[in-house]
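FORM 7B: Structural annotation worksheet

SECTION A. Query
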Amino acid sequence: MLTMRRSGERGIANHGWLKSRHTFSFGSYVDPKHTNFGPLLVINEDRIEGGSGFERHPHRDMEIISYVVKGSLEHEDTMGNKVVIRPGEVQKMSAGTGVMHSEMNHEKDKETHFFQIWIMPDKKGIKPSYGQKSFATDLEKEPLVLVASGDGRDGSIQIQQDADLYLSRLRPHSSLHFGIRPGRGVWVQVVKGSVAIGDMDFEAGDAASLTDESVLDLSSKNDAELILFDLPL
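SECTION B. Predicted structure
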């Protein structure tokens, strides 16, 4: 079954310095029909004003993944990491038994646009860990790039869940064919541009979920960018 989640249906949070769209229930946005997709709990599309951000705060027992679309994000945590995340890079933080971190817009006078993703781990109480990698070169060469996975295969960042996360940048009139294994579901989040799945058209901010399907066939109408999740259900 193919189900559409329109951009405008998402939850909204406007804190002045932060403008966020919530795909699933998050904070004050509560929607019983949209709480998760398998272990995928959060897809927040955040825009942070220059010189601002999330002050130090705690997390535990969560796989937290950040993908910067535009600008740069400065991350600092109690594991000793102090880094800047730029477009084309993926960051993961396995919070495990507990970690504190901050996320600030590294640009002093420009907006930073990024996706914050939370995935429930398959094991609690693990030692916290950190990973970061640029996939910019791979994204220029390949239509679909594995960036995070449960086993860390093909150069992807390892996470504590049997979930695969892919990035794709498609040129106009390109196609993508992705096989879906039994018992798995696929979530597609459109970051930029417009694509077609079946007889449905999707624009930036829209999403598609596929359950009880064996294949995803997608085509781009223009330069498009998307995040694809392959998840246990």
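SECTION C. Observations
The CA atoms of residues 18 and 153 lie 35 Å apart. The radius of gyration is 17 Å.

SECTION D. Sign-off
Analyst initials: ____
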